[in-house]
Amino acid sequence: MPSEVPVVLISGASSGIGRSTALELAKLKWRLSLSGRNEEAMAAVVKECKKTGATDVTTTVGDLRDDEVAKDFVDHTLQTFGRIDSLVNAAGILVNGTVEDSSLTDYDKQFDVNVRSIIALTKYALPHIIKTKGTIVNVSSVAGTNAFPGVTYYCMSKAALDQFTKCLALEMAPHGVRVNSVNPGVIVSNIHRRAGLDDAQYKAFLEKSKTTHALGRVGEAEEVAKAIKFLVTNE
């Protein structure tokens, strides 16, 4: 008989919130289908997930801006596990810059990753999630609701993602599919370094961020992952 153990797709699983979410769901022994761009990092996450409790883990390595990679991710999951119960869209990038000093190429890159690739992956997975009356969680940001200087396109992309989440939630409710987002503040991860901050700049950024967060500290990816676990499960 086909296994009834839930299957989750997690994009951006090689680091940050995506990685931590994979580890959280590994504790529940969910079957994991993980996607990321760094093959070496993906292999390390698989090893960690199995050490944490997962027995069934598969991966798709590639850039989800390519529609074929997104489609292959879904197809590979179905071929491996035969079903999809949940989707966690955790892939995302940060492009620094104001409207004045950034290019339209920067804008396209920001929206291709943070919006378009999420829509594409969701479209491919959606018919299968409807079958299982499953769940979708999008990793957004406080930048989707608050404006910040110097990261204009990032803020815009997360605001767009929030609207996508809300509209999709209304469309999917009649099918019994729950759609939510998490909107964390500053989280310790590599996203700011990849956006161009060196170690000293990143350290200064984290110190300054302590003064803008109610708890007097920035967040950890594991904390967000626990919220995602709550949203994808039926707890």
TrEMBL record:
This protein's UniProt keywords: Oxidoreductase
Domain of life, source organism: Eukaryota
PROSITE patterns, per database record: ADH_SHORT
Domain Ketoreductase: 6-190
Pfam family, one: adh_short
Gene Ontology biological-process entries: lipid metabolic process
Annotated InterPro entries: KR_dom, NAD(P)-bd_dom_sf, Sc_DH/Rdtase_CS, SDR_fam
Molecular function as annotated in GO: oxidoreductase activity
Family: Belongs to the short-chain dehydrogenases/reductases (SDR) family.
PANTHER family to which the protein is assigned, alphabetical: EG:BACR7A4.14 PROTEIN-RELATED (PTHR43975:SF2), ZGC:101858 (PTHR43975)
Protein name: (pine wood nematode) hypothetical protein
